[in-house]
Amino acid sequence: MEFSAQQIAAFVHGEIVGDANATVNTFAKIEEGKPGAITFLSNPKYAHFIYDTEASIVLVNRDFEPEKPVKTTMIKVDNAYETLAQLLTLYEQSKPQRKGISPMAVIADTAKIGNDVFIAAYAVIDEGAVIGDRTQIYPHTYIGQNAKIGEDSLLYSGVNVYHDCQVGNHVILHSGVVIGADGFGFAPSPEGYNKIPQIGNVVIEDNVEIGANTCVDRATMGSTVVHKGVKLDNLIQIAHNDEVGANTVMAAQAGLAGSTKMGEWCVIAGQVGISGHLTIGNQVTLGPQTGVISSIKDGSRLIGSPPMEERPFFKSQALLRRLPDMYQELNALRKELEELKKNK
């Protein structure tokens, strides 16, 4: 599909600077722009690309003022990055929705399948499972007994949703996601470790997206809950009986140990490790590789292991580099002090 600058500006409430009749039919990064593509500029570090880009249209922030002539058409908007996300969403939604059930899919007689669904070859829908309207299920995905998948959700190939688990509406599960594997529960005994049955489930609320090879374990009793709007990256572990608050985001390789409750609108960076049985407040930000061993209050911004406020952490890191020199200076001062004591 092709759109003009005039049409795009009307949709995003933007101001055109240049040719209102310029047309685009694809997207590109500003440094790789080509004729017929729309791109964006939001980071000042990339501003020099706008003077040479071949893209037909560039979204820019309203306060952007070029230092020299720009040959491409600009559309000024309040936030170029957010506007691009809007257009990408519109582009994705305009693609035809896949429908139909492959004859090579395995669907139990007692499963309930909604309207206009897509179920690919080699997908398995077990006894009593429910699949909502317009949901898409790709090859080699397994939906367990009495599991429920909501409407307009997308499960890519190789997803496993275990028995009795619930997945909401408008949820995206990428390849390799496992929902409802047993929580890590074992009781030590003289003979070894005895498995504790995990009889709970997992509840994934609406508008959640979970990245490839991420695992959300079922509860020992009750539910492990991922609330609405949560975005989980690839390779994340959410353990049994955890609760992840609405609109929290977590980057790759983060791990949340069992029975921890995380608040809403938290930002968890990569490789963060959080111990079990803790309470993490709302709007908490944890920097990369932070190790959390105690509960955290609302609004905290922490980094390090053990975690500390950002400013003291970066000061301590700067001092850490000077430790070898400081150690040598300390030894020299000790020697001088010993000499002074001897000469008294």
Can you offer a commentary on this structure?
The chain is an alpha/beta fold and 344 residues long. The chain has three domains: 3-93, Udp-n-acetylmuramoylalanyl-d-glutamate--2,6- Diaminopimelate Ligase, Chain: A, domain 1 (3-Layer(aba) Sandwich), CATH 3.40.1390; 100-308, Hexapeptide repeat proteins (UDP N-Acetylglucosamine Acyltransferase, domain 1); 309-342. Helix content is 16%, strand content 29%. The chain contains three helices and 40 strands. Strands 8-11-14-17-20-25-28-31-34-37-39-40 form a twelve-stranded mixed beta sheet. Strands 9-12-15-18-21-26-29-32-35-38 form a ten-stranded parallel beta sheet, with no helix packed on it. A hairpin with a 4-residue loop joins strand 39 (301-303) and strand 40 (308-309). The longest helix is centred in the C-terminal third of the chain and has 33 residues, at 310-342. The mean pLDDT is 95.
